[in-house]
Amino acid sequence: DIVMTQTPLSSPVTLGQPASISCRSSQSLVHSDGNTYLSWLQQRPGQPPRLLIYKISNRFSGVPDRFSGSGAGTDFTLKISRVEAEDVGVYYCMQATQFPPLFGQGTKLEIK
Amino acid sequence: QLQLQESGPGLVKPSETLSLTCTVSGGSISSSSYYWGWIRQPPGKGLEWIGSIYYSGSTYYNPSLKSRVTISVDTSKNQFSLKLSSVTAADTAVYYCARRPVVTAAFDIWGQGTMVTVSS
Fold it and tell me: Is B106–A103 a contact, with Cβ atoms under 8 angstroms apart?
């Protein structure tokens, strides 16, 4: 079975500074159709998850451009260029290339 | 604007069946462009995909839950439902319904979630 590993599990960040979260899969996430179905979601405290990024690097509608995704194969990164107070929460990567869909364990972003 | 809303009992007894419904508003569930899924989150823990359904009725279940899960769709009511049998305390969680476009395979629209506690 595929394993999704996020690092760090907790990330204290200063407001206005960048943040980066890594997601690594135990197997390649390149689908036979050529796409890589790796997405990133944000979950603010007490809220449902919210889609930020799909297929590695595509920002979902309404997502600020300070969020960006990159990577390929088994290694992926979510970057926030300048952290704002509203970015506090838990971030999850999710793979849907292989069955079953699987979420990473989550990375908690907090303000220093 | 598409919205999803979960509904169902907040308390279920051990060994009984958990039943939840997701009502889709602002759009049709009968679209070939989307799957409709259930995801759960135990208190203080991460997200677990339970299963998904296509408007045609085709279903896909997490192997870890497959023997206890049934997901169905009612296109006339624009709803899809989850049944989880033989529940235990380990099934206590917030249960979310969500939409997943075929082309992106990412859960893009989520319901607010409903807390289900398994307890006698």
Answer: no
Residues B5 and B98: their CA atoms lie apart, in Å, by 9
DSSP, residue by residue, A30-85: B-TTS-B-EEEEEE-TTS--EEEEETTTEEPTT--TTEEEEEETTEEEEEESS--G
Please count the residue pairs, one from chain A and one from chain B, whose beta carbons lie less than 8 angstroms apart: 60
Q: State the Cα–Cα distance between residues B44 and A66, nearest whole angstrom.
A: 28
Identify the helix (H) or strand (E) that includes residue A94.
strand A89-95
Contact A48 B111 (CB under 8 A): yes
CB-facing half-sphere around the CA of B33: CA atoms within 13 A = 6
Q: Which two tokens stand for residue B71?
A: 């997901």
Contact A50 B110 (CB under 8 A): yes
Q: What is the pLDDT along chain A (112 residues), one digit of tens a residue?
A: 899 999 999 999 999 999 999 999 999 999 999 999 999 999 999 999 999 999 999 999 999 999 999 999 999 999 999 999 999 999 999 999 999 999 999 999 999 9
Q: Does the beta carbon of A50 lie under 8 angstroms from any beta carbon of chain B? A: yes
Tokens of B105: 């395979």
Rounded CA separation B20/B22 (Å): 7
